[in-house]
Amino acid sequence: MYIAWLPYSICEQIDKYAHSFLWNGNQDKGVHLVGLYKIPRLRKVGGLGIRRAHESNTAMLGKLVWDIHCNSYKLWVCLLRHKFVNDKFFLDMPTTLGATIWNSIMKAKETLRNGFDYKLEDGSSSFWYAPWTKFGKLCEKVLYVDTHDVHLTIADVVQDDVGTRVFHKSPIEF
After folding, report:
1. How far is CA 4 from CA 18, 25, 38, 72, 93, in A?
2. How far apart (Å, rounded) are the C-alpha atoms in residues 88 and 90?
3. Which of 23, 48, 101, 130 fits 32 for a cystine, CB–CB 3.0-4.6 Å?
4. Can you give the pTM of this predicted structure?
5. CA angle 168, 112, 83 (to 5 degrees)
6. Integer Cα distance of 111 and 62 in angstroms
7. 54-68 burial code (b ≥16 CB/10 A, e <16)
8. pLDDT at 164
9. Helix, strand, coil % (nearest 5) of the chain?
10. Which helix (H) or strand (E) holds 139?
C-alpha cells in the first residue's frame, strides 16, 4: 500500500473486510458493534478514525511524491530522479511508462496535482538563476542575461495586482 497504487476495487474490498470485522467480529452473525457512518469519522467527533483504504494509499504515495519534488537526498529519490526526471520540473512531467513504483508515484502525483499551489519564498532568491518557476531556471530559457540584471532577486521583479509584493514562507503547499 505504501509503494503500489491500489485499484479502487481492491481498496473497496479492504474497506469491506475492515467494516465486516468491526460489525460482526470473527463470526458470520451477530450484533453490529458500531454504525457504518462512525468508522471513518474523526475520534474527537465520536468516530473511530479509521481511514478509507483509497485515501490511505494516496496519502502514503503522496509522501513519495513530496520527497521527489523536494529533491531529498535519499538514495531511492536520487535513483528515480536520475532515471526518470533528470532536469525536468517534476510536477509538470507527463506520465511515462516505467517501473511499477514509478507508475504508482505518477498516478498519485496526478491525483494530488490540484492540491499543489505555487508560492514564492521570501523573494531573496535569484530571479534568473534559481528554479522558482515551473519552467526551471529562467537563464536557461533566454539567449542571454544582461549584466545589469544578473543580481536581480524575485522580490525586485514580482508584484501582485495591487502593486505590493506577495511572498510566502513555503515554496509549495498541499
Report:
1. 20, 29, 28, 20, 19
2. 6
3. 23
4. 0.60
5. 95
6. 9
7. bebbbeebbebbbbb
8. 43
9. 45, 5, 50
10. none
